[in-house]
Write a structure and sequence with these properties.
Elements lengths: L2 H11 L3 E4 L7 E7 L5 E5 L7 E3 H6 L4 E9 L2 E8 L2 E5 L2 E6 L2 E3 L2 H7 L5 E3 L1 H4 L3 E5 L4 E5 L11 E4 L1 E3 L2 E9 L5 E8 L7 E3 L1 H6 L9 E8 L2 E9 L2 E4 L2 E4 L2 E7 L10 E3 L1 H4 L2 E6 L4 E6 L14 E4 L8 E6 L4 H4 L7 E5 L7 H7 L4 E9 L2 E9 L7
Parallel strand pairs: 3-10, 4-9, 16-23, 17-22
Antiparallel strand pairs: 1-12, 2-3, 2-7, 4-10, 5-6, 6-9, 7-8, 11-12, 11-24, 13-25, 14-15, 15-16, 15-20, 17-23, 18-19, 19-22, 20-21, 24-25, 26-27, 27-28, 28-29, 29-30
């Protein structure tokens, strides 16, 4: 083989862009720029059909927002606008004439404890092979026609409908019954799976003997209401995740009922090197070091967020009844001052602490003053 051919092959498999990402909470955060701007904080969300620029970031960059209107989103209506085409750069990848949609993302930033300037959605992802290397925390964009997968891994077919990507997966119930459905691939969700209400009802997943808990949530449009229960397993491809917590939505501004089963999120996907090969209607899962074992889960029963301009405070957003947080008397609006005597926790570290078992002491305050509480962290629902 000649040197010229070798060089051609090397060029063909080299990524267009290869950038690091931070996987706080299992979400894929990376830097991008718009029209040559300073680095902006984007995250990759396969669940969004379009790519987004935060409305505040657009104003900061002097980009006029056109055709502003209110649109329904999970949780409620949000103000959505359209930008004139811009240049979007991710590492060495530069895309011209990109049409970004504007949505206020400040509330989503409080959920993850960091600024979110933008979201990379399906309209960009469908143009490339996108390698989300969770084990190495690298994000790579490759030219589809010159790329060929040569590594080990599961190849799963996907169905792409209306700029949404679906895989077949199943929920194994305690009695052994497995219910399969079409699940939307959603790297923007931190859960194992989130089910739509109609799928839960039509599949009779919840019966008289099902133990479930009421749980509040947060979406782009605001607060949502859901339930969680313990499944015997979640199965997708050749893999099986034992005894995961599964959520389903009962109220999200009308988005709780859809034709599909629900979403499969980062609780599953971050266990792999995930390659999105949309041009060939498939994804590839290469097992990483975290592919085995249980999925980490909250053991407190409360959702902690980090509001404020600097994301330097921790506030209880929701408390699930009949959980350790509820037993300790915690309530929405309580500000967490310290955890086990230490102050200055980041939101990510606080959530990791709440995934452990055993007692933990918090100092919290509200309008009535400060108090010390002890949470006896435990599994929220019995394991199978």
């Amino acid at each position: 083989m000649s040197l010229a051919v070798l060089l051609t092959l090397a060029t063909a498999v080299a990524p267009i862009a290869d950038v690091p990402f931070n996987d706080d909470l299992g979400l894929v955060f990376f830097e991008a720029s718009v029209n040559g701007s300073e680095p902006l904080a984007f995250f990759l969300d396969t669940g969004f059909d379009v790519s987004i620029l935060d409305a505040g970031a657009a104003a900061r960059l002097g980009l006029p927002t056109l055709e502003v209107q209110n649109e329904a989103q999970p949780g409620g209506e949000v103000e959505v606008g359209q930008l004139a085409p811009v240049a979007l750069s991710i590492g060495d990848l530069r895309l011209d004439d990109v049409k970004l949609v504007t949505i206020p993302l400040r509330g989503a930033g409080a959920f993850v404890g960091r600024t979110i300037d933008g979201i990379l959605g399906h309209d960009i992802l469908e143009r490339f092979v996108v390698d989300i290397d969770y084990p190495q925390r690298r994000l790579r964009f490759l030219t589809a026609e010159n790329w060929k997968h040569t590594g080990a891994g599961q190849i799963l077919p996907v169905e792409i409908k209306a700029s949404e990507v679906f895989i077949n997966a199943g929920i194994v119930m305690p009695a052994g019954r497995t219910v399969f459905g079409s699940f939307k691939l959603d790297t923007g969700s931190v859960d194992v799976a989130g089910l739509n209400l109609n799928f839960v009802r039509e599949s009779a997943l919840i019966g008289p003997g099902t133990v479930e808990l009421r749980q509040g949530g947060v979406a782009v449009g605001g607060e949502t209401e859901g339930r969680i229960f313990r499944a015997a397993a979640f199965v997708g491809g050749a893999d099986r995740i034992e005894s995961p917590l599964i959520g389903y939505t009962v109220d999200s501004g009308g988005f709780e009922n859809r034709a599909d089963a629900g979403t499969v999120g980062a609780g599953v996907l971050r266990r792999y090197r995930l390659i999105l090969d949309y041009p060939r209607n498939r994804i590839i899962l290469e097992a990483g070091p975290k592919a085995e074992g249980p999925v980490p889960e909250d053991r407190s029963g409360m959702l902690v967020v980090s509001p404020g301009p600097d994301f330097d405070t921790l506030v209880v957003a929701t408390v699930t009844p009949e959980t350790p947080a509820a037993d300790a008397g915690l309530a929405p609006g309580d500000e967490i001052i310290s955890i086990d005597g230490r102050i200055g926790w980041t939101l990510v570290d606080a959530r990791l602490a709440l995934e452990k078992s055993g007692p933990v002491t918090l100092v919290v305050r509200n309008d009535d003053g400060s108090r010390e509480v002890t949470i006896d962290r435990r599994s929220l629902l019995p394991l199978f």
